[in-house]
Task: structure prediction
Amino acid sequence: MQLGAVLIIIIITVAVSLTAFKDKALNEKLMFSPYKVQHDKEYVRLISHMFIHGDVFHLLFNMFSLYFLGTFLENELTNSIQFDPNQGLVHFLIIYFFGGLFSTLIPFVRNKNNPSYRSLGASGGVSAVIFAAIIWAPTLPLSIMFFPFPIPAYIFGPIYLAFEFWADRKGNTGIAHDAHIGGAIFGILYILIINIDKGKQFVDLIF
Result:
């Protein structure tokens, strides 16, 4: 049995996160710190934060989201008539890892001179995958905790993104909503770059 990219990412992330729960020094070393990136040139933190989480719930929420929508998107890209399987896999990995990297942009600009700011988790990369899947398959039924029933992705996406903007403006939630927004923007733009027709289909559904 050959493991897909999503399952490999999940296995590695769970292993590193569980280790970091017990090893505070490792957790601190991998955590995203804009201040340390800016002043100490610790660039690995731009990606390493994706492999650690604040608690078990944080880890499970991200990994379940990645499993369901990530597996869907990986299969769609690797089996697409537009790409061969290797190209599709590369596109998926770019969406996840570069989405996670892009998600650090807003927090970095806001906090590069703030030594007390810390963040962690795969949420930025997961957000990129979620919104890439939404643009790729806008009629896909989606649901999440506060939605008791599935709704089409093209409706779910704008509602979820509006909530993230509202929560970011509200502040003091303890959640990096700006990272979620950054990841979502990357996922949307990347799908538009590799297949603009998907964007046209999304717009047609809304209007």
In short: The radius of gyration is 17 Å.
